[in-house]
Design a protein that fits this description.
Largest sheet: 7 strands, mixed
Number of strands: 11
Helix content: under 10%
Number of helices: 0
């Protein structure tokens, strides 16, 4: 299983970023996918989830209405559109799948700062 995140960077408060995760090594269209984030010294936090068909999504209260998770089962990718970013969204963002065990990507840094 391989998960590769991309799209992080530095953005001003109120700005937008789109993260992507390319997945391989398993039947992508059969599994729910998740985005987590982690700040140094804190536990990893579940940000958003999407089911295998893309028909059901769930979000942490802190990002509801601002973030949107989506997937493309033809391209084996899952994305996280982040709008109205706040300084507290600064973190390393990880793509995750539960495929017999939890697998993680290497993470992509998102920094929200003026």
């Amino acid at each position: 299983v391989r998960l590769v995140e991309s799209g992080g960077g530095l953005v001003q408060p109120g700005g937008s970023l789109r993260l992507s995760c390319a997945a391989s090594g398993f039947t992508f269209s059969s599994y729910s996918m998740n985005w987590y984030r982690q700040v140094p010294g804190k536990e990893r936090e579940l940000v958003a989830s999407i089911n295998s068909l893309g028909s059901t999504t769930n979000y942490a209260d802190s990002v509801k209405g601002r973030f949107t998770i989506s997937r493309d089962n033809a391209k084996n990718t899952v994305s996280l559109q982040m709008n109205s970013l706040k300084s507290e969204d600064t973190a390393v963002y990880y793509c995750n799948v539960l495929y017999y065990q939890r697998y993680w990507g290497q993470g992509t840094q998102v920094t929200v700062s003026s």
